[in-house]
Each structure stands twice: as C-alpha cells, then as structure tokens.
Amino acid sequence: QALNLRGVGLRAARALGLLDASRSRRRSSSSFRAAQRMDDPDRMEMDLAPTGMAIPPQAKLREDLTQAVSELSFCELASSASWAAELLAALPSDGCEALSVPAPGGISSAQLYSSLMLAKSYFNMREYSRAAHALNSIKDLHRNQAALFLRLYSLYLAGEKRREEEAVEVQDPVEKCLVKNQELKMLQDQLSVLYRQGLLGGLTLYLYGITLRGLDLKADARRILVESVHAFPCNWSAWLDIIAITSDLNDVSQLDLPKHWMVWFFHAALRMELQRNEDARELYASLRHSFPDSSYIISQIATCYYNVQNFDASQLAFDEVRKKDPYKLSSLDTFSNILYVKGQSAALSHLARQAIKIDKYTPEASCIIGNYYSLKGEHEKSVTYFERALCLNHSFTPAWILMGHEFMEMKNTAAAIDAYRTALNINQREYRAWYGLGQTYELLSLHFYALFYYRRAMTLRPEDARMWCAMAQCYDSMDRKAEALKCYEKAHRCGDRERMALPRLARLHQDLGDRRQAAVYYSQMLTQNTQASGGLPTDSVEALRFLMVFYREEGKLADCEACAAQLLDTAGPEKDEAKAMLRDLRASDGNTPWRQSRDRLGM
Fold first, then answer.
1. What is the pTM of this model?
2. How far, in Å, CA of 249 to CA of 238, rounded?
3. In Å, how far are 62, 82, 135, 158, 389 from 117, measured between CA atoms?
4. For residues 350-389, b (16+ Cβ closer than 10 Å) or e, as one string?
5. How far apart are CA 110 and CA 97, in angstroms?
6. What gap in Å lies between CA 256 and CA 234, rounded to an integer?
7. Alpha-carbon dihedral angle through residues 16, 22, 24, 30, given to the nearest 10 degrees
8. How many C-beta neighbours within 10 Å does residue 215 have?
9. DSSP symbols for 415-476
10. 3-class SS string, 369-410
11. pLDDT at residue 339 above 90?
C-alpha cells in the first residue's frame, strides 16, 4: 500500500512537472512574441497609439494651450501653468498667427503671448533668471510695457535673491549690509536709455525708481517715482517708496504729486512715518467714510493709537479689524505688543493660537508667539521665534527690535546692539531701535554714547516724553544738572504719561538749592497722584515730607499741618517725623486748634 501511495505521488509529481514545463514554454513563446513587437517600431506604434484620436492641427493646439495657461494662471496653479506655457512656447511659429483669445496689455501676437506667459509662469515659480531669459528672443520689447517690465523686474529680483543668499553667508552685520544687488547697474544702464527716449510706462518707471534707490541715488529715485505715480497712480508700492525716500531726505515740499484720490492715502501714511500720528488718524478717519469696510484703514487707525500710547483705543480698533477680517495677520504683531504691555496673557495666548491656525510660518505669527513666551518669562524660547520670523523675512524690522528687547532681558548686550543696528540698517527712522541702543549703552554706563542714540530717537519723536526723560537721565549721570533740568521740563510739557519728570524735577531743584521751585513741582506731583488714586505712593510720601518741612520754614503752619496729617497714614519713619512736627506745632502755638491731630495721635 505504501508503494502504491508512493507510485501515485510519483505520477502526480511527474504530471505536475509536465504541466509546469508546458506553462514555461507558453510564457517563453509569449515573451518572444513581445520582444518581436518591441523590435518592430511600426508594430509598437500601432499598439501604443490611442485608438480613434489624432494630434490636432497647430492652430487648435495653440488655442487650447492659450486658454489653459490663462485659466491656470488665474487660479494660481503655477506648476500646471508653467507646463502648459512651455508647450505653448514650443509650438513652431511662422510669425503670422493671430491670438485667438483676448490678452492683457494689447498683445495681439501669439508668439509674444506664449513667451510672456512662459516667463510669467517661471516668475510665479520664483525662477527669475529663467523668466528673464524666456523673453530674450522678443524683438522691440519696449513696444509692450508688460513684457518689458516682467523681463527687467525678473532680473531685479534675481539680483535680490542672490544678494540675500550672499548676505546669509556673511557673519559681520556691517559687512552684511554692504552686500548689494549686482544687477542694479546693468538695469540702470538699460532703463536710462529707454527713459531718455520716452519709452517707459508707469510700471517700468517704478522699476527705474527702485533701481536708483538701490544705488543710493535717492533724489533721482524720488523724481522718477513721482513720474511713475503720475502715469500709474494706483501703484501703492511706488507711493511707499516715495514715503521712505522723503522721510530719509526730510523734505516734503519738493513733491509734485498728481491730482488723484490716492494722494489722501499717501499723506496719511507719510504722516504716520513722520510720527504725526494725530494728523494721520484724522486723515484715515476721513478716508473711512469712503471705504467703511477697509480693514487696512482700521488697522492704520489702531496703529496711530498705539504710537501715541493710547492702548485701550488701539485694542478696540484691532478687535474691530479681527471681526471684519478674521484671517488677516498683517499688523497683528502690533496688537500682540499691546496685549504684552497690558499684561493680558490669556488674550495673548488666544491670539497666538489663532495665528498658528491661520498661518504658522509667517513673520507676524512668529512675533506674536515670541511675545507670548516673553510675557511668560521664557526669553530663550521667545528669541527662537523671533529668529524664525527673520528667517521668513530678513527685513522684518519689528522682529529685530523685539529680539533686541529679549537680549536686553537676558543681559546679552552685544547681541542686543547687533539686533538694534540691523533694524536701523533696514529703516533709519525706526525710533525704537535708536531708543533701544540708548538703553543698552546706558546699561553699560556709557552715558555719552547712550545720549547720542537718545538724541536720534528724540529727533524722530520730539513730542514723546520718554525720549526727553532718557536724555535727562544721561545728563544727570554725567553731572550736567542744567541740561537734565531742561530735558525734564520738556518731558513734563509733552505729557509724561509715565510720571517720571515731576519727581526728578523736584529732586534736581532741591539738589541745586532752589527749594521754592522744588516745592512747586512737589505740589504738582501731589495733585497728579491724588487725581490718579487715593493711596500714597512712594513719590507722594517724599513730596509730603519735603513740603511739611518747607511750609514750616515758610511759616505756612496750616499747610504744614495738612501735610503732616497725611503722613500719619504711612507706616515708615515719616510717620514718626509727622508726629514730631505736630507736637512742635502744638508747642509753638497753644492757641491753634489741634484737636483733629490730637485725636489721631491718641492725646
């Protein structure tokens, strides 16, 4: 039986072997036939070609691709638009094709349109040199201003991109600022020739202007930019460059502006740049009647309030911005500064979470998160987020300033100085950077250097009492009492919201022996503190103590008694001095009714 089973197994095995052999022979024959088809190109083409479909004529291809490029570009599908534009540009041309779809800029040539859209698709992919090269073959490019602008602007941005790449490799902040765009001189040569021939339109004039500005030819740049806004008034970038150059030159009178409604926005933004915030706010309030739902105008009004330290009104305006445009991050870094100053950690935490949900990798979101960690006292983590903001936008001035503040908290003065100086290299009118440098050098007890930076901050914000108080402290530390007095008096006239000037004015006059003037300032300080709150802060105790003695010396016994009676509410040595003064007054004149004082003394 075992032999029979074994025989059955052998037969089954042989049968299986024969079956596998037949299968392998069939596979080998089919592979051989496939190889034969591969060797025969005609047979392969017949097998692989789509059945019932032929390549249409070039006119149909051009029409389909032109329509596709237009729609894909509008929908910002950059990669697909670039692919279709490459095919469109690759079609052979005999120079007589008319464009079958309407195109911007009065383009009627199919070849020009295909080259322009190819360059635009490369531009959208940030391949700027490639975009400029795509338009090299176009003759008389100046006849189409859109194509001329795109080619030259691509060269400009290619130079800016290389400049940023080279700047990253430079460690020294001074040398980093010396890295320039190498394309500017070539662009100037080309644009100047076209300008003299009168062949530049509004946008190409703008490009000529920013080229001259990059070469530090500011007066010429502003003149060209003014011509640009005459030709194309709604180019807001040109207006912003005019504002930046005008604030640097400190000369507004030489501007020949167009009679266009955009001038309202220009004057409002210029006043903000010149720190004339109340005037700017009034202009924006007028503009809001015409643009009631503009989140830009409301955020500018909020920033004006912030600049004059009206944090409550600024916060309300920013809340309105967030209701109207909940996904807007622009200017919200300023809103986070307000929440930081007011110590509203819960609101700042909520704002940071919202910024992360909207777009985590933006400079504004990084600054908001950095402010949140700074408020929590985690300064190292805060610096990390400010550095992230600068990686996203190296020219984002608020991040440099906030990072300088954090380095000051960490007592890293060298890093703070580098951060503030980098901010000034980007914007010379950034008063917070000048003020931060002054604080840094004052911390290092280099008062002469600190005074220089405080003066620069003061020239930018002459109505800011903090700048005058900072200068006065430096003068006082340098034992220049007369200059310190003048600065504190100016700070007092400017409002002095932080109430620093009056106490120091009183002490300085006291040190200089002018006790009568010191009494005047101490009296003003008492009135100010009484209006603010009913308590007795340290400055008020100091004022009452001085005035008590001063009125005793002047023979104003009733005023002396009033000051002494208020000092009875304190718990320090001033209370004992007040008791002694009241006893002395009672002993000097027994007829004076001291019942209130006796009752309070327990007599």
1. 0.78
2. 16
3. 13, 8, 10, 18, 33
4. ebbebbeeeeeebbbbbbbbbbbbbbeeebeebbbbbebb
5. 6
6. 16
7. -150
8. 16
9. HHHHHHHHHHHH-TT-HHHHHHHHHHHHHTT-HHHHHHHHHHHHHH-TT-HHHHHHHHHHHH
10. HHHHHHHCCCHHHHHHHHHHHHHHCCCCHHHHHHHHHHHHHC
11. yes
Which residue in the block uniquely carries the two structure tokens 């870094």?
Answer: 333
Q: To 5 degrees, how large is the angle CA 312–CA 316–CA 321?
A: 145
Which residues have CB under 8 Å from 97's CB, separation 6+? 59, 62, 109, 110, 111
Q: What is the 3-state secondary structure (H, E, C) of 231-280?
A: HCCCCHHHHHHHHHHHHHHCCCCCCCCCCCCHHHHHHHHHHHHCCCHHHH
pLDDT confidence of residue 4: 41
Cβ neighbors of 568 (< 8 A, separation 6 or more) are 575, 578, 579, 600, 601
Angstrom distance (rounded) from CA 213 to CA 241: 9
Structure tokens at 538: 């340290």
Residue 603: DSSP 8-state: -
Question: Does the pLDDT at position 335 exceed 60?
Answer: yes
Q: Which of 68-74's residues contact partners 24+ apart within 8 Å by CB, and which partners?
A: 69/117, 69/121, 70/101, 70/103, 70/117, 73/117, 73/120, 73/121, 73/124
Q: Burial of 190 by CB count in 10 Å (0-12 exposed, 13-18 middle, 19+ buried)?
A: middle
Query: Contact 257/223 with Cβ under 8 angstroms?
Result: no
The single-letter DSSP state of residue 77 is -
Q: Are 151 and 142 in contact (CB under 8 A)?
A: no
Own/partner pairs, 126-129, CB within 8 angstroms, 24+ separation: 126/161, 128/154, 128/155, 128/157, 128/158, 128/161, 129/154, 129/155, 129/158
Whether residue 270 contacts residue 252, with contact meaning beta carbons closer than 8 Å, is answered with yes
Give residue-wise pLDDT tens across range 495-537.
Answer: 888 888 888 999 899 888 888 898 988 888 888 776 555 557 7
Q: How far is CA 56 from CA 32, 45, 62, 104, 431, in A?
A: 36, 18, 10, 27, 65
| Least confident segment among 415-419, 437-441, 467-471, 559-563 | 559-563
Q: How far apart are CA 434 and CA 56, in angstroms?
A: 67
Structure tokens at 98: 């008319």
Give the residue among 116, 94, 89 at the shortest CA–CA distance from 104: 116
Please choose, from the candidates 484, 569, 566, the residue with its C-alpha nearest in 3D space to the C-alpha of residue 526. Answer: 566
What's the Cα-to-Cα distance from 564 to each of 91, 269, 574, rounded to whole Å?
A: 98, 54, 9
Of the listed ranges 20-29, 244-253, 457-466, 506-515, the least confidently predicted one is: 20-29
Helix (H, G, I), strand (E, B) or coil at 98: strand
DSSP classification of residue 170: -
- The helix (run of H) or strand (run of E) holding residue 44 is helix 41-48
Exposed, middle or buried, 21 (CB in 10 Å: 0-12/13-18/19+)?
A: exposed
Tell me how far apart the terminal alpha carbons of the chain are, to the nearest angstrom.
134
135: three-class secondary structure by DSSP: coil
Q: Looking at the predicted structure, is the pLDDT value of residue 448 above 80?
A: yes
- State the DSSP string of 178-218: H---TTHHHHHHHHHHHHHTT---HHHHHHHHHHHHHTT-H
CA-wise closest residue to 465 among 505, 418, 405: 505
CA distances from 588 to 451, 544, 567, 582 (A): 51, 21, 20, 10
Q: Packing angle between helix 345-359 and helix 332-341, nearest 10 degrees?
A: 160
